[in-house]
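Table 4 source record.
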Amino acid sequence: MPRAPLVGLTGGWAAGKNAVAALLEERGWRTVDVDRLGHAALESKAAEVAALLGSSVLGGDGRPVRKAIGALVFADPALLARYEAIVHPAMNALVDAEISRADRDGVPLCLNAAVLYRMPHAARCDAVIEVRAPLLVRLRRGMRRDGLPLRAALARVRSQSPLLALGRLYAEKRRVLRNPGSLARLARSLDALLSRLALPSGSAVPRPPRAPGR
């Protein structure tokens, strides 16, 4: 079975990676929201997570409460590692299934993932697109979108710095896509990047069906 083009897409908080994902879809790419797959993986491992963290992390309907889980695991690195050992293999299996489906369907696939650099799939990507935007643009956009005060927004930006620093491990395949705030300019920059990478773009690619759950 031939392998379909595979691109990873990542970036800091409010940098605009979801806007890039939407532009890729317009150009015939199938995009996978890895955050959503992570939520599905958590749901499938609810019992094991509750055994690790306690039943208080489950809501009245028996489903995991992500905010309660985050409050526990992000305050304890050792506990976070044990939690991720439960959830991440399930999430990675779902990503593997999406890659296999794209290969079978013959459509280019984009993995849209804030945690891409911590995933084994980053090494399998033909290229990694890291979206960057000026700090003031990110703060303005993110504060408006998420309803956060300035201090909380700055904390969100700082919290991702160690994760994005892992991008150096993929320096050979990482390509920075700058997003100053104009969607039209972002689209032109993306088209130029796809062209340089000899990746599918535009009408040359048949428009694929949307991935399940999108």
